[in-house]
Every structure is written in C-alpha cells, then in structure tokens.
Amino acid sequence: MEQKILVVDDEQSIASAIAYAFRREGYIVETASDGEEALAKAASFRPHVMVLDVMMPKMNGYDVCRKLENRSGLGIILLTVKNDIVDKVLGLELGADDYMTKPFDLRELIARAKALLRRLESKPAEEQGAEIGELRLHVPSRALTVAGASVELTPKEFDLLALLLLHPERVYTRDELLDLVWSIDYAGGTRTVDIHVQRLRKKLGEPYQGLLQTVYGVGYKALRGLPS
C-alpha cells in the first residue's frame, strides 16, 4: 500500500521543500497552507502521516489536533519555531506523536516519519488483543471498545495501552516505555509517558482506569483484571 503524507505549512517554500523530499522517497504527498485546509484534506486525502506546522493563520496546529475527527492510523509530527518544553508537551497532550523545532534537517524529518510509519504498522501477530470485563482491545484492527462503545485513541495511546494490557503485571520503567513505544528521544523525556497514561485513564473511565497502575519510583503496569 502506498503511504501518504500531508504537509501543512503556511510558508510555501517550506511546504514545497518538505513535499519534494518525501516524493523523492516514493511517498504520495499533498500540501495545505492553513489549519482549515489541513482538516479538509485530512478527511479527503486520509494521510498516514501529517507534518503539521504549529504557527499558522486561521487555525494553528494545536487546534488542528483538537478538531481532527478521526485519528485512527494517523501519525502527527509537529513543526514549531518554539523550543519551549511547555509547547512541546502541549502538542503531545493533544495527540501529536513527535515534533521538530525549526530549522531542521529534512533527512531527520524523513527518518522520523519512517520510524513513525513503522510503529503505526506494527501489529504483533501472536497477540490478538485483550478482554477485561467489558473492555475489548483488538490489536489487528487497532480498536478499543468499552461496554460496546468505541473509544478513540491516538496511535501512541493505543500502542502504550496495548503494550501494558498484553503484558499484565509486568512493571515497565518510564524509560522502557519511552523506548518501546516512542523509539525516539523527546525533550519532554519521561513526562511524555505520564501524560499519555493520564489521558488513557481518562478515556477508559471507571472502573477501567484502575487497570493502569503506577508503581511509585519505577513506572507503570497493567492489572490482569479489574481492581477489587
């Protein structure tokens, strides 16, 4: 299957350079110049990865992340001129998978996109999913339902939840989770893991949020069943 990249940047020269670099690598590429156009093309083009500038007219990159209707199978790499860790953590909280600070090397951007695509495509053949009470995690389709209702997860949220639920009672350090799920060093460090666990608990709701346990001073683990 041909992989599709959507490049979103209001600076035409930057968008064109990024698009050209990805096309040379064999990807199908479309571009958008503002947030509103990005949302429209995300719905029609259905890219596998969106390279998304944060500072744009009409709607910034953070708002695009908030308003995306379907994040299933879509990875997001944010581009920002800000080197403030608060801005980067905000992007991760909103579902971005990675970020780069301008100016950046196009070769690194392509490498990060390839790594992200590999993670999105990875599906453990021997592990089909998990069932706990009315929670159903199905790895091949990357789907989660609770009490029959679909729960929308970002690619990173799904990968983290699957890793923990498929290896119950296994304690992972934050560094291990960062390496296994993200595979790329973030300036946000292990705080990234904490943010995603918090978001997962909120999305799972009671009583399923209790499945994800904090092992103080170490990291996290998932229980085999609902906490009593």
Automatic annotation (TrEMBL):
GO cellular component: cytosol; protein-DNA complex
Keywords, sorted A to Z: DNA-binding, Phosphoprotein, Transcription, Transcription regulation, Two-component regulatory system
GO biological process, one term: regulation of DNA-templated transcription
Superkingdom as given in the UniProt entry: Bacteria
MF terms (GO), sorted A to Z: phosphorelay response regulator activity; transcription cis-regulatory region binding
Residue span(s) of domain Response regulatory: 4-117
Keyword Glycoprotein: no
Domain OmpR/PhoB-type as annotated: residue spans: 127-224
4-aspartylphosphate found at: 53
InterPro entries for this protein: CheY-like_superfamily (IPR011006), OmpR/PhoB-type_DNA-bd (IPR001867), Sig_transdc_resp-reg_C-effctor (IPR016032), Sig_transdc_resp-reg_receiver (IPR001789), WalR-like (IPR039420), WH-like_DNA-bd_sf (IPR036388)
DNA-binding region, residue range(s): 127-224
Protein name as catalogued: DNA-binding response OmpR family regulator
